[in-house]
Amino acid sequence: MAEKEQIFSSSIKHVGNFDFKDFYQFCYDWITEQIGMSNLAEKEYNEKISGDAKDLDILWEGSIKLSDYFKFGMKVTFKILGMKKVEVEQGGVKKTMNNGLLKMTVKGTLIRDYEGKFESGPRLKFLRSIYEKWVIPSRVEQMEDIVAENCDEFISQAKAFLDLEGRK
After folding, report:
1. What is the pTM of this model?
2. Nearest to residue 83, comparing CAs of 53, 59, 124?
3. pLDDT level of residue 22 (50, 70, 90 thresholds)
4. 46-94 pLDDT, tens per residue?
5. Beta pairing partners, 101
6. Which residues contact residue 85 at a Cβ distance below 8 angstroms, ignoring those fewer than 6 apart?
7. For 133, which DSSP code?
């Protein structure tokens, strides 16, 4: 069994106007194009409508191979509460946007020995711990940095997108 270690966990919260469709597309495009996570999938989508407001719970999961031994896993959850359609004026033109509370959480995981090459016996499991601790500790650190940097940059970009959209 592959060993998973959560390296990064952070969230952003936005209250106000935003275009959820554009934000959703921006996030998906950024992860698939900038990180290269082509297998990003929507694992969960729950929608609850009450009156003219909508609550959404969305979960994305994906991973990307970093080497023959390491994989980068990512989970993104969106929680939107009280989302309503509103009309706003931008430069004299009316535009339909959304208003509500949006919370997005990102978790980055480093998956080691994802093919289970060291899982065929207790001797190999022991060798794996020696391999990671004494042979490739700097490589493990480098992979952890890649996971943390990608997740942190994604959170920063998403936050900047929401800040820009909210000001329009």
Report:
1. 0.90
2. 53
3. very high
4. 999 999 999 999 999 999 999 999 999 999 999 999 999 999 887 788 8
5. 15, 81
6. 52, 96, 97, 98, 99
7. I
Distances (CA, A) of 117 to 6, 143, 152, 165: 21, 19, 30, 47
Question: Coil, strand, or helix at residue 121?
Answer: coil
Alpha helices in 7-120 (DSSP H): 20-30
Structural domain boundaries enclosing 87: 3-167
For the chain, what is the domain count?
A: 1
Q: Which of 78, 132, 73, 142 is nearest to 108 (CA)?
A: 73
SS3 (DSSP) at 106? strand
Question: What does the mean pLDDT of the chain come to?
Answer: 91
Secondary structure class of 15 (helix, strand, coil)? strand
Gap between the Cα atoms of 50 and 151, Å rounded: 33
